[in-house]
């Protein structure tokens, strides 16, 4: 019987090992699992559709790795899938690009945008799966604060940016080209993203800022801000 791992050398007894240029992601994988972040993803996102499919935690982890390793589009997921060493680090093979795309499509609910008018900007309610991802991010924030307690001072930085696109259904932004305008609220002292929203390009950056900042505040662990109850 032959067994493979990551070092790329042939051992006595017919054991052959595999090489991966991404062995350095092992601490990131361990951090995500030990901190409970992937466990929350598995608990709050809907169960996988078949026994053979990757779990929700594995899909979330695959996208985290895609970003960490410099991926810029879904097609780059193929590089992770074809790598012979990653399965021995992860315990599974990352998804194919089309599988990853289908998984992302499940976060969109067409009925939530059914009320969009022909004119003017529109902010649809979030789907249950997007709300589930907020709980995953809450675990990231709380785990960080637990291990690296910040000063009891919180500054929220609200930032919106235009992302030009050629998609047919995209809206024109105030600068006259088709774009999306995602917005995020980050915790300036830590760099953590506390709340975010992906928007059409014609949605004013000022729309819903109070709501987003309130959402960001609710993500803070108890006792983070001076004057609150202790953790």
Q: What is the structure about, briefly put?
A:
This protein is α+β, with helices and mostly antiparallel strands and 231 residues long.
Structural class based on helices, strands and sheet pairing:
alpha+beta
Sequence of strands across the biggest β-sheet: 1-5-6
What are the secondary-structure elements, in order, as H or E?
Answer: HHHHHHHEEEEEEH
Count the domains.
2
How much strand? 5-15%
Using DSSP, what is the number of strands? 6
Mean of residue pLDDT values:
86
Provide an overview of this structure:
This protein has two domains: 12-105, no CATH class; 151-218, no CATH class. The strands form two sheets. It has a three-stranded antiparallel β-sheet with strand order 1-5-6. Strands 2-4-3 form a three-stranded antiparallel β-sheet, with no helix packed on it. The chain has helices at 26-34, 37-44, 56-68, 77-82, 86-90, 97-105, 128-147, 209-218; strands at 156-160, 163-164, 171-172, 178-180, 183-187, 192-197. A hairpin with a 4-residue loop joins strand 5 (183-187) and strand 6. Residues 1-11 and 227-231 have low confidence and may be disordered. 35% of the residues lie in helices and 10% in strands. By secondary structure, it is an alpha+beta fold.
